[in-house]
Amino acid sequence: MRKLYLLGSMYVVLCAFVLFKPKPAPPPRPTSHVTQTPVQFGGTGAQWFQAMKPFCNALEVETQHKYHPAPKTIEGSGYSAACFALASKIDRARAVIESLPPSDRGTAANIVFNVGHPVADAGDDKSAGPIMELVIEFWPENYMALYHAGMSEYVLGQLDPARDHLKKFVELYHEDDGWRTNALEVLNRLGETP
Predict the structure, then answer these.
(1) Best CA proximity match to 136, nearest among 75, 144, 120, 117
(2) Which spans in the chain are helix H?
(3) Which of 21, 33, 37, 45 is most buried, with most CB under 10 Å away?
(4) Rounded Cα–Cα distance for residues 12 and 80 (Å)
(5) From residue 72, how far is each of 12, 75, 116 by CA, in Å?
(6) SS3 176
């Protein structure tokens, strides 16, 4: 009986040791605010844009630009503006272009046009119109931007700017093809005879 009493006592001591053993401190909790430093991109503006294009949307464009800024070149600025324009952040795109010397703004607008042109060709008038308007601000003789802006405005019921842009398009573009025919037809509907 004494052996059982001794074994029982040892069991109680062992249980007490396990229960009251000091616990190690928990690992530190991650903070909710993580500080990242911008990573300077080492490639060309076009390479930067290819990496950034999936993030050229209203939700991610600002954050991605903050942590992965475009190269500090005319091309980098043009692609940065194009990314903002694709994300429908036209004011930010305009600010990027305006940060360039006046002599370089047309080059940046050309990049925005080349990126936005497939959007216009795909028929996304709501997105393409503002992008083409931005291009026209800095490159007023871009007849394709005038055409796409005018057609987008017409479809969206913005008849006065549509009329102005399509009239300017017809003045600049003289090829007898579908674009000119479409522009003349819309101008006719708007009561204009160029």
Answers:
(1) 144
(2) 2-20, 45-52, 61-67, 74-86, 90-98, 102-121, 125-138, 143-155, 159-172, 178-189
(3) 45
(4) 71
(5) 72, 8, 21
(6) coil
Alpha carbon 71 to chain centroid, angstroms? 16
Terminal CA-to-CA distance of the chain, rounded, Å? 118
Radius of gyration of the chain (CA): 31
> Which residue is it, tokens 């080492």?
42
Which regions in the chain score pLDDT beneath 50? Answer: none
- Contact indicator for 187, 170 with CB cutoff of 8 Å: yes
- 8 Å CB contact between 138 and 103: no
Which SS3 state, helix, strand or coil, does residue 43 take?
Answer: coil
Note whether 117 and 139 are within 8 A (CB).
Answer: no
pLDDT for the residue 25: 62
Q: Which two tokens stand for residue 185?
A: 């037809």
pLDDT above 90 covers a percentage of the chain that reads 69
Q: Compute CA distances 95 → 49, 134, 138, 166, whole Å.
A: 18, 11, 12, 26
